[in-house]
TrEMBL record:
Transmembrane segments: none annotated. Its EC number is 1.1.1.9. This is D-xylulose reductase. It comes from the Eukaryota. GO terms for biological process: sorbitol catabolic process. Belongs to the zinc-containing alcohol dehydrogenase family. Pathway: Carbohydrate degradation; L-arabinose degradation via L-arabinitol; D-xylulose 5-phosphate from L-arabinose (fungal route): step 4/5. Residues 29-362 form the Enoyl reductase (ER) domain. GO terms for molecular function: D-xylulose reductase activity; L-iditol 2-dehydrogenase (NAD+) activity; zinc ion binding.
Length: 368
């Protein structure tokens, strides 16, 4: 069955009538299948042929566990949400893009009517339809139908591979906006995976003067030092207060950092963060790990720390992410460690699970 589908795929890769998709049935059980090609459901929609898709921890989480928290894969679901593509069809009312434009896809469609949407925080929509979040299919598919305002045209000098990195970059833009980083400020970023590294790069673009990248993997810190961090720090298995004190001493952060971002989701780094942030500073939770942890609430209270969450991306974040790539202020190319063919999509999941490289892309199915 699998071989037959692949053979069929090879014969018809360029056919605009095919919609080959990479589907998760249940944990570690995937298949390739031709799904019906989507149709435009509104005159404001466009159809996009998907060229490249990045794989991140959440995709891998569904592949391994079939769920993230209360989001459970109950029916076969197309995976993927970090994609770029080429516009192949536009609705009658579409003004901002045209057929042939290369775009970064923002993969969540909000209702535009609920209180969070109307208050300008559409990432907090009560009725969000987000790619590869059950029950909604993802973007590892031939064609993706999207409202035109959730497609961001890539300038000619920005590649489609870079376009696929706009999604995690937009996550980092949102986190750094939540951290309210201003020129000359200091920031500590816990975790040097794609999200943490991009937070460092965005903080630099925002003018942060000292950027400390923290991770338990030496290879990731080596990369961070070359990429956007001014300092790196490796925590040890000691009390959070002890790690925090050594971090502040080694990096010369007298009195604490103006902002601390967690992009690891790890309980020890969240605890350390609260001891690293200065009195009156800002802490942002970007990482998603255990849903409940021990938290140093006394330090939060007595230091009057502003503690914020950060979820996906909202108004203006994708636009700024594209501008950062286009202007060269953020180098997303450096994060791409490899590209696999669409028929080898599962390999990309294995690589990410094993922590190989930083960002793995899947080409196609419409990349020739
Ligand atoms: N808030 C959002 O909207 C959003 C969006 C995407 C991803 N995320 C989350 O952001 C986090 C980072 O994503 P990623 O793709 O970079 O993941 P990743 O797994 O590649 O990176 C996490 C890094 O944290 C490091 N780490 C683990 N324990 C640590 C500790 N005790 N101290 C310091 N570092 C430690 C790991 O070595 C790894 O390098 C994940 O938790 C992910 O679920 C959140
Ligand atoms: Zn992602
Ligand atoms: Zn809404």
């Amino acid at each position: 069955m699998y071989n037959l589908i692949l053979l069929h795929h090879r014969q018809s890769t360029n056919s605009l009538h095919q919609n080959l998709s990479f589907i998760l049935n249940k944990p570690f059980d995937v298949k390739f299948e031709q799904k019906p090609k989507p149709t435009l459901s509104s005159p404001h929609d466009v159809l996009v042929a998907v060229n490249y898709t990045g794989i991140c921890g959440s995709d891998v989480h569904y592949w391994v566990e079939g769920r993230i928290g209360d989001f459970i894969v109950e029916n076969p679901m197309v995976l993927g949400h970090e994609s770029s593509g080429t516009v192949t069809q536009v609705g009658d009312a579409v003004k901002s893009v045209k057929v042939g434009d290369r775009v970064a896809l923002e993969p969540g469609t909000p209702c535009r009517r609920c209180t969070p949407c109307l208050s300008g925080h559409y990432n907090l929509c009560d009725d969000m339809r987000f790619a590869a979040t059950p029950p909604y299919d993802g973007t590892l598919t031939g064609f993706w139908s999207s409202p035109e305002d959730f497609c961001y045209k890539l300038p000619d000098h920005v590649t489609l591979q870079e376009g696929a990195l706009v999604e995690p970059l937009a996550v980092a833009v949102h986190i750094v906006k939540q951290a309210e980083i201003k020129p000359g400020q200091t920031v500590v970023v816990m975790g040097a995976g794609p999200v943490g590294l991009l937070c460092c790069a965005v903080a630099k673009a925002y003018g942060a003067s000292k950027i400390v990248s923290v991770d338990i993997q030496a290879s990731r810190l080596e990369f961070a030092a070359k990429y956007a961090a001014t300092h790196t720090f490796t925590p040890e298995r000691v009390a959070a207060t002890e790690n925090a004190a050594r971090l502040l001493k080694e990096t010369g952060l007298v009195g604490g950092a103006d902002a601390v971002i967690d992009a690891s989701g790890a309980e020890p780094s969240i605890q350390t963060s609260i001891h690293v942030v200065r009195r009156g500073g800002i802490y942002v939770q970007g990482g998603m790990g255990k849903p409940d942890i021990n938290f140093p609430i006394m330090a939060l209270c007595t230091k009057e720390i502003t503690c914020k969450g950060s979820f996906r991306y909202g108004s203006g974040d994708y636009k700024l992410a594209v501008e950062f790539v286009a202007s060269g202020k953020v180098d997303v190319k450096a994060l791409i460690t490899g590209t696999v063919k669409f028929e080898d999509a599962e390999q990309a999941f294995k690589d990410v699970k094993e922590g190989k490289g930083i960002k793995v892309l899947i080409a196609g199915p419409n990349e020739k």
